[in-house]
UniProtKB/TrEMBL annotation:
The gene is ffh. It is an enzyme of class 3 (hydrolase). Residues 272-285 form the SRP54-type proteins GTP-binding domain. One of its GO terms (biological process) is SRP-dependent cotranslational protein targeting to membrane. The lineage of its organism: Bacteria, Pseudomonadati, Pseudomonadota, Alphaproteobacteria, Hyphomonadales. Part of the signal recognition particle protein translocation system, which is composed of SRP and FtsY. SRP is a ribonucleoprotein composed of Ffh and a 4.5S RNA molecule. Coiled coil: none annotated. Its EC number is 3.6.5.4. It comes from Hyphomonas adhaerens MHS-3. It is found in: Cell inner membrane; Cytoplasm. It comes from the Bacteria. GO terms for cellular component: plasma membrane; signal recognition particle. This is Signal recognition particle protein. GO terms for molecular function: 7S RNA binding; GTP binding; GTPase activity. GTP binds at residues 108-115, 193-197, 251-254.
Amino acid sequence: MFDALSERLGGIFDNLTGRGALSDKDVSEALREIRVALLEADVALPVVKDFIAKVKTRAVGEEVIRSVKPGQQVIKIVYDGLVDMLGGEDADTSLRIDSPPAVVMMAGLQGSGKTTTTGKLAKRLSEKGRKKVLLASLDVRRPAAMEQLAILADQCGDSVSSLPIIQGQLPADIARRALNAAKIGGYDVLFLDTAGRTSIDEQMMTEAAEIAEIAQPQETLLVADALTGQDAVETARRFHERLPLTGLVLTRMDGDGRGGAALSMRAVTGLPIKFLGVGEKLDGLDTFDAQRVAGRILG
Ligand code: GDP
């Protein structure tokens, strides 16, 4: 992820730091190139415009031009701008799971990595947080998805269980049964893995909204595939209109993508990115850190 962008920015910065003094024209030219690089990385146009305007205000003017290392200073300003774009250094990436059983609802399109991410989060909470976790699949149209979740629960160890599957139940009924089982079983966290579709449709949204109403989740996470670029951003925006989303998980960050979705998500939706999926295995999950990602982009 971000390889092409990283290389482009590296070239622009080499040019800036290679010369001693910088004029406002040099800085403006560099910003024009950065603008193109971000657009080519598939970052949403309004996000790019806002970023360039902010960076320009800080980078053009006496302070940078007169500084001892003007090129370095521009790089620092761009870095700060990227951290800002990604939600800032103090962005809250923790999960609110304080009143057991805390319900975490997982939403997203089919294939986005929702079920895998549910398993990854369950493993993390049981191992690092010592939580007792229950997983319930509400994907009644895809028996394979229900079985996949049960298999993941088994792989997570003793503190993670899956709700037994009862054929013929509606998603809302499963949600109620899961809530009861979580209360009776003394679980700390209940994950509701909702059904996805290959594209957004009204029925999926209505079903997900109904489940949110019943389960009153403390966290509702949208899982989006970072490799799908602006489609992922549009998906997040549409889900956010209908569901009380509290955060985002971007999957396939280990893939070879341009990175535009990751860079636009926060600014377009206003939602914090909480986790990054970085592999197919259950330990392939990173807590999101804006500074780390910005640092990686700038090399
Ligand atoms: P769902 O339909 O949204 O529940 O998607 P799944 O969880 O079944 O994931 C679809 C595919 O994506 C599976 O083959 C997963 O192993 C894979 N996958 C999920 N997250 C990641 C990730 O972060 N990186 C990679 N490389 N693959 C992932």
